[in-house]
Design a protein that fits this description.
Elements lengths: L1 E3 L2 E5 L1 E2 L3 E3 L4 E3 L2 E4 L8 E5 L2 E5 L15 H15 L5 E10 L4 H12 L4 E6 L2 E14 L15 E7 L4 E7 L2 E10 L3 H16 L5 H10 L6 H24 L8 E5 L3 H7 L7 E3 L5 H18 L4
Parallel strand pairs: 2-9, 9-11, 12-15, 15-16
Antiparallel strand pairs: 1-2, 3-4, 4-5, 6-8, 7-8, 7-10, 10-11, 12-13, 13-14
Helix pairs in contact: 3-5, 5-6
């Protein structure tokens, strides 16, 4: 989080696999209960409903405002970030994002969704939070994650933000994003997980939990039998090659440009792709986008107060 005067800026990266703040990562699974769940966990109580958060992932949808899930997840993310600093009451400015090609058409709708209430009072993990929402900024995904690397982006560069549901592609030429060269593809990590689950079922007859496959993607291996690991690795290598094939559709050429990879899918590139490490930069910090949102919002608020100077 960042503090500007009496306002706390909290960057939130609303992924389909994980929801991230500058210092927290939580799987986006969410289940509602009419009464207190039997087992402990990440439990949020809001408007009389108990929500268990962090088990599984949210299915991909083309709009993040179709239900209340991302709003409840936003409250949870704010609570987790504030808890890092021992804060339970705050005036909060949300800094969030949308896939590159969704921003123009969905920005205002998403902003209104996140600001649907001026005040929210809820309990998370037994602690009461009181939040005044004083503003919300919505930015394109991906680009905020690399603002710390802009000095390296002379000439032509390509950015690939590979999330759980989508991959956002953007050209950055001489440190400036090219708005006419932005695309969103539905080729996120979850598609690889589903393909690997089907491959394991077809080859062994066993049903494998998606978290096992996600561990393989993150670490390159897992504590499972060789026949299962080989099957999953084979799918991951094929999928990583398909990611590069998708980039080539947008004229990616490693001889002419550097590639910067952000998001959880960077692990897949690192462990399973064939690439030139001198021409591909993988940003490992999965919270980089949330941190970037905060930095951009902080700069914008400071500029606004100073009269644009």
């Amino acid at each position: 989080m960042k503090k500007f005067n009496n306002t706390i800026i909290i960057g939130i990266d609303h992924g389909y696999g994980n929801i991230k703040t500058a210092s927290t990562i939580t799987p986006t699974g969410i289940t509602a209960y009419d009464s207190e769940p039997t087992f402990a966990g990440k439990i949020l109580v809001y408007d009389g409903i108990h929500y268990r958060i962090g088990e599984g992932h949210k299915a991909f949808v083309s709009s993040k405002v179709v239900d209340s899930d991302f709003y409840v997840l936003t409250l949870m993310a704010i609570a987790r970030e504030l808890n890092q600093h021992g804060i339970t009451e705050a005036d909060v400015h949300i800094a969030a994002g949308l896939p590159l090609t969704w921003v123009k058409s969905q920005r205002e709708e998403f902003r209104k969704y996140l600001l649907q209430r001026e005040f929210a009072e809820f309990v998370f993990n037994g602690r009461e939070y009181k939040i005044n929402f004083v503003g919300c900024s919505v930015y394109p995904q991906g680009y905020p994650a690399i603002i710390g690397q802009l000095d390296e982006m002379n000439g032509v560069n390509m950015l690939a933000d590979i999330g759980n549901g989508t991959m956002n592609v953007m050209y950055i030429n001489n440190r400036k994003p090219v708005e006419s060269k932005c695309w969103t593809e539905k080729v996120g990590v979850n598609q690889c997980v589903i393909t690997a689950q089907n491959a394991v079922m077809d080859s062994t007859g066993a049903k494998i939990d998606g978290t096992v496959i996600e561990n393989v993607i993150r670490k390159g291996t897992a504590d499972i039998s060789v026949k299962y690991l080989d099957c999953i690795v084979g799918v991951c290598k094929k999928y990583a090659a398909e990611l590069f094939e998708t980039l080539r559709k947008y004229e990616y050429n490693p001889d002419l440009m550097k590639l910067f990879v952000v998001g959880g899918g960077g692990c897949m590139i690192k462990h399973f792709a064939d690439y030139d490490k001198n021409r591909v930069v993988i940003i490992d910090d999965i919270c980089a986008t949330a941190k970037g949102y905060e930095q951009i919002a902080f700069s914008a608020l400071r500029k606004e107060v100073s009269g644009g100077c």
